[in-house]
Amino acid sequence: MIEIIALIILVIHIGKVARRKGEKAAKWQILTVAGWIAAEAVGVLIGLMLFGTGNIIGLMLFGLISAVGGYLIVKAQLDKLPDDPDDDIERIGS
Question: What is the C-alpha to C-alpha distance for residues 26 and 42, in angstroms, rounded to an integer?
Fold first, then answer.
């Protein structure tokens, strides 16, 4: 449950950053969820290879850490984009 709440908060944050960059927020939010789920699945598979099925807590933690890594990859790609130049014009003189 905490994982879902964290993902919702991160998706909202990515949407705000995407709007600031002049990008479509929905596109980046979908990429965030997809990156989270894909990285978590890969993390669980790697955890299964490393820990086996006997250590469920290790598997869960490895999957969660991988999921956060998936979010960070999407965020890094979004952060590389330049800010919206029209936004600067709106702030001049205020």
Answer: 24
Helix 56-80 × helix 2-21 angle, to 10°:
10
What Rg, from alpha-carbon coordinates, does the chain have? 17
- Residue closest to 28 by CA, chosen among 90, 68, 81: 81
**Residue range 31-67, pLDDT digits in tens:** 999 999 999 999 999 989 988 888 888 888 899 999 9
Q: What is the percent of the chain where pLDDT is above 90?
A: 62
| DSSP assignment string, the chain | -HHHHHHHHHHHHHHHHHHHHTS-HHHHHHHHHHHHHHHHHHHHHHHHHHH-SS-HHHHHHHHHHHHHHHHHHHHHHHHHSPPPHHHHHHHTT-
User: How far, in Å, CA of 61 to CA of 25, rounded?
Assistant: 29
Indicate the pTM of the whole model. Answer: 0.83
